[in-house]
Amino acid sequence: MTADHVLAGLDPEQRSAVTAPAGPVCILAGAGTGKTRAITHRIAYRALSGAIAGRHVLAVTFTARAAAEMRARLASLGVGGVQARTFHAAALRQVRYFAPRLLAGREMPELLDSKVRLVTLAAARAGLRTDRAAARDLAGEIEWAKSSLVEPGDYPVAAAKAMRETPHEPAKVAEVFAAYEKIKRGNGVIDFEDMLRAAVWGIEEHRDVADQVHAQYRHFVVDEYQDVNPLQQRLLDAWLGGRDDLTVVGDASQTIYSFTGATSGYLIDFPRRHRAAVVVRLVRDYRSTPQVVGLANAVIRQARGTEAKLRLELVGQRPPGPEPDVRIFADEPAEAAAVAARCRQLVDAGTPTREIAVLFRTNAQSEAYEKALAEAEVPYVVQGAERFFERPEVRQAVIALRSAVRSTPGETPLVTAVVDALTAVGWAPDQPPPGGAARERWEALAALVQLAEEHAARQPVLPIGEAAAVERPVTLADFCEELQRRAAQQHAPTVEGVTLASLHSAKGLEWDAVFLVGLSDGTLPTTYAKTAEQIEEERRLLYVGVTRARESLWLSYAVARSPGGRARRPCRFLPQFDRPGGDRGRAAAGGSRKPDVRRNQVVSCRVCGDTLLAGVDRKLGRCPDCPSDLDEELLDRLREWRGTVASTQKVPAYVVFTDATLMALAERRPTRSEELLAIAGIGPRKLALYGAAAIALVGGASVAEVTPEKSSPEEP
């Protein structure tokens, strides 16, 4: 293959990225715009044209899967020798290679695969009693600090400046951090951050190591540059050694890992740090339909803050598809059941289960969907999280519940018995603790209580003896049997299935059909997002979720968490949901009426396909900047007719039709009742009063032909 062949099939923006001269290049690549194609073709083009040698290229990614894909693509382009690795893999390789020199002949220390055990010991030294969840939260804080180049003594000030939600008092976390470092050194082991620091130290403090690294690697590519943390940037700077042959690719609108120390600041500041940088924007979306792309644009268009400066307006390249489906349900069980039913329909229609995903904000939300999919006999897999019944806290809770069966009187109400048993293992009702892992643990156990509430509400008729069947309360023993049945059903092995994943773990993946569920304020954005920056990161999280879908996108929200529960507001980042009034949307007393499921279809611009949020735009069916096909002569007749009708009925003209509705009629020129009803603001009543006249006017009738001599006034 030649360099010219590498350019075949690239769009103009990709070609600009591939052929940019040596030096700093920043590729701003929106979701689905072919960023991997651009950077692999850039490497191949330069290598095949003789500008560089593949063995001198280091391409850095954030996942082993992405690195493997990059190597495979380069091989298919006829380029070998390129090192495509994650930051950690590249650093580990270099530290191992230089260990004899750096460690004066000593062996390289063992690398910890998890901090939790040592953090637990460190917490005990600091006077803290921790379970596994609390230890994970403390480990997360230590990882954030080390990735942010923060030392134990500086942690309290740094945490306050970063507005961290710490699992304990910052001074106490700093004490645990210091104890962890001491225990780690005493055990002769290092963690992943130490390994990155060792690679930096080897280059910065050892001239011979620096010379060898700089001679080996002369050209650098960094994928997902918006996710780089200060420690990784320090390593990248050491690798560069003052040189500037660096290509970075990223999307500030997909910055969703700031809680780990990642920052988009390096991507945003790239042109300032590298004055001669070439900046290329990839905006042609080859992944999703124009309808999905339109909704993604609508979500991120409202973004504010630093990342919004690099916001990209995507342009869909695929043929049109179905409109995103926005739905509202009475409660979460109803939402989960509807999602499972729709998944069943998709599978029955031929969609492979591996091409369907259900995405949610927190892992604790997965249980309802595991249950619903299992009951619908739809296989599933959980991505990026332990299955609900395999989580340590759930397994511990199940053991506690079984133990409590022997000591719980038979007449004890089920929910009371479950709460008492969980309280005995440290769970406290209505007291979610701080810290992400601890909160997920609390929410998982809260889900067991909710499951007990649902199970108790069924009040089944159970046989007693052989001849009689009487109703008796559900006992704790019954509930334990139910948990065992569910666990056995959900642990059934499956080759493939519908993916259940948190929005964070879904980044970098894509599916034909995506369900974004649980879109209520308090969940997305989470109640723990306090600052404007945190709120904006939650918005970007939804954007990432929307852009995972290729063809079909479902967005849903439940008014209440459980039947009859407290009402919640829908996610503020989406087009407005129709909110049920009064008792609509929930079952009537006694369950005699099914929940009212309301549906609100997303409206797309009929010109460009973008999602329309403003009322006037939705009514007109187009963006304000898109060209209008307004029939001005028709608009004049509509205005004259409206004035005559309003005068006859003695009401203001807007009561008949607003100006925006008249413009929509003159632009969209409906010829059937169904087309009239599709215009926002025209419902059944106005259709009955004015529909025939409007259609006649569109058809060319004069005002005199359609103006009634006397009409019933429209009620204001």
UniProtKB/TrEMBL annotation:
Signal peptide residue numbers: none
Binding site for ATP: 29-36
Gene3D superfamilies xrefs: 1.10.10.160, HRDC domain, P-loop containing nucleotide triphosphate hydrolases, PCRA, domain 4
Keywords (A to Z) from UniProt: ATP-binding, Helicase, Hydrolase, Isomerase, Nucleotide-binding
Pfam families: HRDC (PF00570), UvrD-helicase (PF00580), UvrD_C (PF13361)
Ranges for domain UvrD-like helicase C-terminal: 290-551
Substrates-to-products reaction catalysed: Couples ATP hydrolysis with the unwinding of duplex DNA by translocating in the 3'-5' direction; ATP + H2O = ADP + phosphate + H(+)
Domain HRDC: 628-708
EC number: 5.6.2.4
UniProt xrefs under PANTHER family: ATP-DEPENDENT DNA HELICASE UVRD2 (PTHR11070:SF69), UVRD / RECB / PCRA DNA HELICASE FAMILY MEMBER (PTHR11070)
InterPro entries noted in UniProt: DExx_box_DNA_helicase_dom_sf (IPR013986), DNA_helicase_UvrD-like_C (IPR014017), DNA_helicase_UvrD/REP (IPR000212), HRDC-like_sf (IPR010997), HRDC_dom (IPR002121), HRDC_dom_sf (IPR044876), P-loop_NTPase (IPR027417), UvrD-like_ATP-bd (IPR014016)
Protein name: DNA 3'-5' helicase
GO molecular function: helicase activity
Domain called UvrD-like helicase ATP-binding: residue spans: 8-289
Family under the similarity heading: Belongs to the helicase family. UvrD subfamily.
Superkingdom assignment: Bacteria
Region (Disordered): 576-595
